[in-house]
Amino acid sequence: MIQVSYVSRANKPMSAEQLLVLLMQCRDNNSAQGVTGMLLYGNGTFLQAIEGEEPVIDGLVDKIWADRRHADIKLLSRRRITRREYADWTMAFERVSDEGLWNVEGLVSFAARDFNYDYLVGHQPVVAALMDRYREPHYDQLIGEINAKDKVIEHLKAALAQVRDRAQVTRLALESLTEAGRKGECTDELLGMCEAIIASVRPR
Ligand SMILES: Cc1cc2nc3c(=O)[nH]c(=O)nc-3n(C[C@H](O)[C@H](O)[C@H](O)COP(=O)(O)O)c2cc1C
Predict the structure, then answer these.
(1) Best substitution site from 2, 11, 22 to test ligand 1's pocket, by max atoms within 8 Å of Cβ?
(2) Partners of 52 in the beta sheet?
(3) In terms of Cα–Cα distance, which of 100, 93, 75, 96 is closest to 27?
(4) What is residue 96's predicted lDDT score, i.e. its pLDDT?
(5) What is the pLDDT of residue 41?
(6) Closest Cα partner for 21 from 69, 73, 75?
(7) Distance from the CA of 126 to the center of ligand 1, in angstroms?
């Protein structure tokens, strides 16, 4: 998979309706093609990141680059990724506003009016902070917490499965010992297995 990000200038200021048309187009196409990403718009400037399988992204980049709604496309990065950074978004979108920027970590003195082509092209750390806003788990604290809980639950499930496995083997060992003891036929082999089981269930 690859991820591509760029900034560009809108050819005309985009109305809310034009942005909506664009966003619907992105979401329809992207969900059909397994593309995820984010798109920010403000002051006639787009900042976008798209990610997915390489041939799909290369094809989409050709289309986007040729789109007459924007120009002066400045590629910021094209890199290989092993997992999606915007997995939950067929295209996260926001019109940049001062309120929207309040909670963005790393943007201390950045305001909505600074969201413009020249500023973004010259300030990579600002771009990185803006892009980070939609990366999991920053965007939604609740999703972050659910993900964290999911991890704990996964861990507990694995621990439980291990306890169950050990209980089954321990029970079988006890049954074997009981049977062999009743018959007075306890072999070295059985005792060896029981010792190995005791060693494996001993708390570390
Ligand atoms: C700033 C910007 C971002 C875009 N992002 C996407 C996108 O993520 N996915 C997409 O399919 N089209 C995107 N487009 C639209 C494409 O340039 C193109 O119009 C569209 O993919 C054509 O879709 P169609 O082949 O279904 O007509 C974007 C256009 C602009 C101006």
Answers:
(1) 22
(2) 2
(3) 93
(4) 86
(5) 93
(6) 69
(7) 25
Nearest to 86 by CA among 149, 134, 43, 144: 134
The sign one gets for the Cα dihedral 45, 51, 56, 58 is positive
One-letter amino acid for residue 41 of the chain: Y
Ligand 1 centroid–CA 97 distance in Å is 23
Closest protein CA for atom 5 of ligand 1: 26
Structure confidence at residue 136 (pLDDT): 65
| pLDDT value for 2 | 97
In eight-state DSSP terms, residue 34 is T
Q: Express each pLDDT in 90-133 by its tens digit.
A: 888 888 877 777 667 677 778 888 899 999 999 988 899 888 87
Q: In what order do the strands lie in the sheet with 2-10?
A: 70-80, 2-10, 45-52, 36-42, 92-95
Q: Are strands 36-42 and 92-95 parallel, antiparallel or unpaired?
A: parallel
**pLDDT (tens digit per residue) in 158-181:** 888 878 878 887 888 888 888 899
